[in-house]
Amino acid sequence: MEANLDDQAGEGLGYVMTQLLAAGAYDVYFTSIQMKKNRPAIKLSVLSAPSDRLALTKLILAETSTIGVRYQTWHRTIMRRHFVTATTPYGPVKIKVATYDGIIKKTPEYADCASLARIQQVPLMMVYQAALAALEQLDEEG
Amino acid sequence: MEANLDDQAGEGLGYVMTQLLAAGAYDVYFTSIQMKKNRPAIKLSVLSAPSDRLALTKLILAETSTIGVRYQTWHRTIMRRHFVTATTPYGPVKIKVATYDGIIKKTPEYADCASLARIQQVPLMMVYQAALAALEQLDEEG
Amino acid sequence: MEANLDDQAGEGLGYVMTQLLAAGAYDVYFTSIQMKKNRPAIKLSVLSAPSDRLALTKLILAETSTIGVRYQTWHRTIMRRHFVTATTPYGPVKIKVATYDGIIKKTPEYADCASLARIQQVPLMMVYQAALAALEQLDEEG
Amino acid sequence: MEANLDDQAGEGLGYVMTQLLAAGAYDVYFTSIQMKKNRPAIKLSVLSAPSDRLALTKLILAETSTIGVRYQTWHRTIMRRHFVTATTPYGPVKIKVATYDGIIKKTPEYADCASLARIQQVPLMMVYQAALAALEQLDEEG
Amino acid sequence: MEANLDDQAGEGLGYVMTQLLAAGAYDVYFTSIQMKKNRPAIKLSVLSAPSDRLALTKLILAETSTIGVRYQTWHRTIMRRHFVTATTPYGPVKIKVATYDGIIKKTPEYADCASLARIQQVPLMMVYQAALAALEQLDEEG
Amino acid sequence: MEANLDDQAGEGLGYVMTQLLAAGAYDVYFTSIQMKKNRPAIKLSVLSAPSDRLALTKLILAETSTIGVRYQTWHRTIMRRHFVTATTPYGPVKIKVATYDGIIKKTPEYADCASLARIQQVPLMMVYQAALAALEQLDEEG
User: Fold this and answer.
1) Angle at the Cα of E31 from the Cα atoms of E124 and A44, rounded to 5 degrees
2) What is the DSSP string of E61-107?
3) Where in chain F is the domain with CATH 3.30.70.1380?
4) Chains that contact A by 3+ CB pairs under 8 Å?
5) Which residues of E touch A74 (CB under 8 A)?
6) Residues in chain E with pLDDT < 50?
7) pLDDT of chain B along its 142 residues, tens only?
């Protein structure tokens, strides 16, 4: 789903993003665009399940200044995901393991690292690097 | 319709936007993108009726540096619109009333507010706020 | 203060923004830029009091991937501000009144409108427009 | 001069740009930025003579939602300019000749090319290329 | 094909662009977007033949932080192309001639102009303008 | 140093970036801006030593379409840097160690990781994560 907004202030858009995510959108993002009459504007993009399209369209029409929403169907290739836990000097961090046709990717959860960083009063980067090192050792042992 | 332009100066693009709108495009907008070889570039997007696609494609090929145009069909959900007139201390302002499934939105026409602001030598924001107040009172009376 | 970041993921930047604001920065914003070797990057900009510069510089160096921060002094022309309260059908809304050399601007506080919208289950735009109408009537009475 | 705007719709900004240029600004441009609370915003930049700063500041404060404007002094290195006229198959085109320390640049005026393109009903690119060819021959003869 | 990336540094993206082009993508470009939680992010877009889709999808999943790729089919209108050579004072330059339904566009190859500019130690703009002038004379003779 | 460019194609700008870096600029980056008459444009920013300013200004004036360059002096806070080498399963990787007032940051050199990834035919992300893990172990031993 997409809508071009040239008559809406940025303040309101932060609010709309929160509402769309709460209403079940997979993802919501803004792209800066340039419209006619020298107007800087924002394109609002919403990715959702087909079954949520109508409810999210109504939310966009009610909460933003646009009078039209355009939409299209996309196909998706998604990796399978599961979670493991790695132990770092700062505490446990959840690791997202994604797999697809021989590809394996492991990424520490940012939210976990950020909350450890806040509690331990250390930079987020240090926690994140420690989590990466911990998962590397996990591999060698596993 | 979309085309990526990395060998066209910005000056020419302002001209092309005017021409595409004059030729019947619903909407024309630019998105800044980054292409290969460190080239900043512009994606030109055109929304139009399917029947205008061929004429607008020819216009893009003739007036821009691109040698290809890609296109796709979108569906649209559009609110019904009509106009009423509100009276402000600065003069009359046309109000766009948009309705869809119980949602009602009223927005003052910017062009009207801007021309009143110019004539009355007051900031556009004051005229716009007065128009919003006037339409709020319209509701209570109506 | 400014720093160019081409080796930092966006996830970490949201975290840094929160921390810089908590540490006393007036304003923090990101600008998308394009650096060498086809790298999309982010310029982090921080506006602060001169007395906070050192502490905020250390925070940027500790929390982001940059190894340098550049800075400059800006002058500012700021409007005087006070707050009044307007009554809307949805509840009271704080209004920011800003004045400077004959210019008077009144803007409803977004946070107030957003919390009323959430409580009353109505679109934020309706609350905001009602607040604007209420402040217009405030003028006529005052 | 710079101001960050997160509570102003794009429609109003096109109007402000026109007004600032009419009031004597050398150049006015918008940069898309990202502010706190997920707000997409616009940075308004104005380049002007120091003597116009106060009047343009008042215009920004009156016409936009910002309550503060920051400013700084820049130095400039500017090429000397004069104009010559080149003859193309479509009509005469003014050529801007800029010189600085041995560098000579000649660029056809876009406005002239655009008006010839409109009158002769040919693509702007053809007129522009013809103007470039004409100025190249100018060199050989001169 | 498209993927939104909010947990990947810009450095890695330059590398991915090179790899995708080497693997047969028609075009690869980045768009700056704004995602939830104040995260600046990059949308990676890849245009390719349908037959290359699977291989390129695997490359994106292996080399970037995303765990999903979405895709869609676009139609394209492409001009026919051939090349001629123009003679400039700096050396020969290949000219791309594109034709479609009566439209003819001629553009000097940037790579040729850039290598001549490097060899002759002159600004690229001078070589480019000379190439445009040369192709204009080509027309008159032809 | 800064220059606004609205009459230059993106192709030429990639070339200019390479030349400015070769001529000694610390950093060169592009920002997408929106100028008058609906023109999308690029702001070219160059960071350099004061002693290189004149030569780089001449290069900008000779190679781009701008007829003016503006400049300003910035102060900088820079971390001290040295390099160590870490051993990964894919080969040795140079690690940049930056220090400032108690802050220590270690980042693997992207160029090293990228060349190992190419030689070993593995994803760059795997090499980069291995380098981060290796430097974490370096700490424990050191």
Assistant:
1) 140
2) HHHSS-SEEEE---EEEE-EEEEEEEEETTEEEEEEEEEETTEEEEE
3) 2-63
4) B, C, D, E, F
5) 2, 70-72
6) 141-142
7) 877 776 677 778 889 999 999 999 999 999 999 999 888 999 999 999 999 999 999 999 998 888 899 998 888 899 999 999 999 999 999 999 999 999 998 889 989 999 999 999 999 888 988 888 887 776 554 4
- What is the H or E stretch that residue F95 is in? strand F91-100
Contact C38, E13 (CB under 8 A): yes
Let me know: does E20 contact E59? Beta carbons within 8 Å: yes
**Bridge partner residues of C82 (DSSP):** C97
Beta strands across the sheet bearing D91-100: D80-88, D91-100, D103-108
Query: F25 and E134 in contact (C-beta within 8 Å)?
Result: no
pLDDT digits (tens, 9 = 90+) for A99-131: 999 999 888 998 999 999 999 999 888 898 888
Structure tokens at B92: 């009359």
pLDDT value, residue A139? 59
Domain A80-141 of CATH type 2.60.40: no
Q: How many CB atoms lie within 10 A of CB C8?
A: 23
pLDDT digits (tens, 9 = 90+) for E86-120: 999 999 999 999 999 999 988 899 899 999 999 99
Write out the DSSP string of D87-115. Answer: EETTEEEEEEEEEETTEEEEEE-HHHHHH
CA distance F48 to chain E (A): 21
Query: Binning pLDDT at 50, 70 and 90, where does residue A141 land?
Result: very low
Q: State both tokens at F30.
A: 């592009």
Please tell me the distance from the alpha carbon of residue E10 to that of residue E28, in angstroms, as a whole number.
Answer: 15
The tokens for B58 are: 């020819």
Nearest to A4 by CA among A42, A60, A34: A42
Which position has the token pair 């507010």?
B113
- Give the gap in angstroms from C-alpha A117 to the nearest C-alpha of chain F: 15
Neighbouring C-beta atoms of residue E77, cutoff 10 Å: 19
Chain A residues interacting with chain E (CB cutoff of 8 angstroms): 17, 21, 27-32, 45, 47, 72-79, 81, 96, 98, 100-101, 103, 105, 107, 110
Q: In chain D, where do the E strands start and end?
A: 2-5, 27-35, 39-47, 68-71, 75-78, 80-88, 91-100, 103-108
C5 close to C28: Cβ distance less than 8 angstroms: no
Smallest CA-to-CA distance from B13 within B29, B34, B36 is with B29
How far apart CA B40 and CA D98 sit, in angstroms, is: 25
Distance from C-alpha of C19 to C-alpha of A114, rounded to nearest angstrom: 11
Q: Within chain B, how many helices (H) and strands (E) appear?
A: 4, 8
Among candidate residues E41, A38, F121, the one with its CA nearest the CA of residue D15:
A38
Q: Which residues make up the CATH 3.10.20 domain(s) of chain C?
A: 80-141
ipTM score of complex: 0.87
CB-CB neighbours of B135 under 10 Å: 23
Which CATH architecture describes the domain A2-63? Answer: 2-Layer Sandwich (3.30)
Minimal CA–CA distance to C67: which of F83, A111, A4, D133? F83
